[in-house]
Amino acid sequence: RIQILFEGMSERYSFSLTTFSPSGKLVQIEYAIAAVAAGSASIGIKSKTGVVIAAEKKTKNILYDDTTITRMEMITKHCGMTYSGMGTDFRVLVRKARKIAQQYFLQYSEEIPVSQLVQRIANVMQEYTHSGGVRPFGVSLLVAGFDEDTPYLVQCDPSGAYFAWKATAMGKNHINGKTFLERRYNAELELEDAVHTAILTLKEGFEGQMTEDNIEIGITTKDGYRKLSRSDVKDYLAALS
User: Fold this and answer.
1) How far apart are CA 52 and CA 80, in angstroms?
2) pLDDT tens across 10-23, in order?
């Protein structure tokens, strides 16, 4: 009876963002994390000379113009970002991140360090976990950046928490993806090997035929961030087949 009463009390708090449940949880944040776990897969891998991010890009209808749909965006010359979860929330955070980067550049006449950019984005996400009249962002971000001689791969969650990774997976089948990366990753990975490993990790939970049309790959090195063209992705897929 006590357990049923406790569960009933928890349900009363499930629609409140700013009130802790009796078990000490903010349930709406857990729901936001569930939305991320149900989203399309994203992979990030750090190599010795750069960072690779890869994402599944599937359209809901074959009539969509898939050239207008993207899963990753450039924030600064040396920083790119992808996501798992709600694409509309990602768009808002991309705009905020670019604004933060431009404000820093106007003030200091140099690119914002990746660590500061991530911290400020995470602060925005955390603000939406304790403000009235809003909801948490239903998205987790993978930020791939390069400062001086150091590559960075950082994940930002809906709670506002952020973590630096050597390699990670988000979205659908992220547990299997992380298990696969634990077996394949080593600190001496070259950039080309990291691209191959990212594609193989995506394949772990991929439904249907993987082509250059339904995945995206971005690379960040000391020369900057760039998204691979479809022909480049096709070549990588052919090399693995």
Assistant:
1) 10
2) 566 566 667 777 87
Q: How far is the C-alpha of 90 from the C-alpha of 57, rounded, in Å?
A: 14
Which residues, in sequence order, are bridge partners of residue 82? 72, 142
End-to-end CA distance of the chain: 58
CA distance 148 to 14: 45
The residue whose two tokens read 């960075």 is 152
| pTM for this prediction | 0.89
Q: In the 3-class helix/strand/coil scheme, how is 127-182 assigned residue by residue?
A: HCCCCCCCCCCCEEEEEEEEECCEEEEEEECCCCCEEECCEEEECCCHHHHHHHHH
Rounded distance between C-alpha atoms, residue 29 and residue 137, angstroms: 9
- The conformation of residue 190, written as its DSSP 8-state character, comes to -
The per-residue DSSP string of 51-87 comes to EEEEEE---SSTTS-GGG--SEEEEETTEEEEEEE-H
